[in-house]
Recover the amino acids of this structure.
DNA sequence: ACAAAGGTAACTGCATACGGTTTGTTTCGT
DNA sequence: ACGAAACAAACCGTATGCAGTTACCTTTGT
């Protein structure tokens, strides 16, 4: 392959249009740049990316398959989750994320540790500066950092399919300063446990972290006022 | 909607070609009707279904996305799982399936209970008759029965993504009569716990069940002989 | 005879095109 | 003026066609 001293650079095969579009759209969805009222129409997105409908359509179908979007007869849109669906989602997260985080702590390498610490520092700074958006981004970065350290690829991708956490974080942190402080302190504790490579502590802390997020979420939505209550209004506010 | 006494029957909108093809192919993949040496080429499948390549292509991409297939530059094919990947898969199953089964036991309705019992009876009959294929089908039916009773849709679909169990069952049960008997008895115990609605017992039994399957699987592949050893040969034999 | 290089067939990925269905709007009737 | 029905537009799903790429086969040179 590599002849003489030539730099090969892996060349990482030009990503297909479908892949580019998928990655880009997913990133934007994770940033909540689309609200439940926005409709993603294939032909528009295609024009935006300078391609035809087909790769866009395939990317959208993939996002639907992963729960980021819901396909309707009239355009694709961000799904509006019912409280019951959020409860289901939290149940799965409670089952797998603590163990996954514990595994990550066990296998943590220096780079990932640095990433975690940086995210924790960012979160603290954003909290002090009352920079809501920066706080959210720091929390997302923290999550991405430990998730990237999970060696079990199937476990990591399974967790990655639960995109709801983004909404959860936004909803829980955007409004209440008290919640922001509690969440940031919890994140710092979690970070400390990671840096100590204390897998058991990480698991415990993660369990608490999810429980806290769940309580904050449902407290915001005064559970019981309507069983199938939707989260549309707040999500709109967040977007 | 429904005018006069007309029977509405939901009419269940004619499924799209993509959906039909996807469902059919997934069912066949779950039955291991394709081996790792078979290549699924879109144009062939399209001819087989009487459609064009596009819906087939989308169905294949979806199956790739769910791990049933792996897309190469030269046709789509059944992925060959390494031992490490199987270990990862078992780890996730250990995390979620016991709790999911326990939930199913809690929420079990009469129809699902009947399905479980029928599958258990079938398994016993197949065992006595030394009908390997029927035994496998009964075990798959049993799994489908309790999985269908899981109310948490996200949990159920998450479990459903791990298609490896089919291969595991095949590999573990096809060859060894002793393993077959142990597995069948474990299934009957599990079934009894389900029928008692004993959620805790179901969770425990499911934990044991998965551990047993895992041990049987790795015993068959004399772990350690090669770390990245592939499962190709046995899967061929099974298919 | 074997290896290397070039050619060819096959398959994927993307583009364009068309029909069907659903939705929103306008017009007509009461 | 309000409702219903017909019309128009938008968008999804599918078909076909074309180009690029990759693997396999053939051929040629040593």
């Amino acid at each position: 392959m590599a002849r003489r001293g030539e730099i090969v650079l892996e060349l990482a095969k030009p990503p297909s249009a479908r892949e580019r579009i998928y990655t880009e759209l997913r990133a934007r969805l994770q940033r909540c740049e689309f609200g439940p009222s926005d409709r993603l129409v294939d032909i528009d997105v295609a024009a935006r990316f300078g391609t035809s409908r087909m790769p866009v359509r395939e990317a959208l179908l993939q996002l639907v398959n992963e729960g980021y979007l819901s396909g309707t007869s009239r355009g694709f849109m961000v799904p509006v989750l019912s409280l019951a669906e959020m409860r289901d989602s939290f149940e799965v997260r409670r089952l797998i994320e603590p163990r996954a985080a514990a595994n990550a702590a066990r296998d943590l390498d220096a780079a990932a540790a640095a990433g975690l610490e940086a995210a924790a520092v960012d979160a603290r700074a954003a909290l002090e500066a009352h920079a809501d958006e920066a706080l959210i981004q720091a929390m997302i970065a923290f999550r991405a950092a430990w998730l990237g350290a999970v060696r079990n690829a199937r476990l990591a991708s399974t967790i990655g399919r639960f995109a709801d956490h983004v909404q959860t974080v936004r909803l829980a942190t955007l409004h209440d300063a008290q919640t922001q402080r509690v969440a940031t302190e919890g994140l710092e504790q979690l970070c400390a446990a990671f840096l100590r490579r204390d897998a058991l502590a990480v698991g415990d802390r993660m369990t608490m972290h999810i429980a806290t997020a769940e309580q904050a979420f449902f407290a915001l939505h005064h559970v019981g006022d309507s069983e199938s209550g939707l989260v549309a209004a707040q999500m709109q506010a967040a977007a």
Summary: Strands of chain B lie at 39-40, 70-72, 75-77.
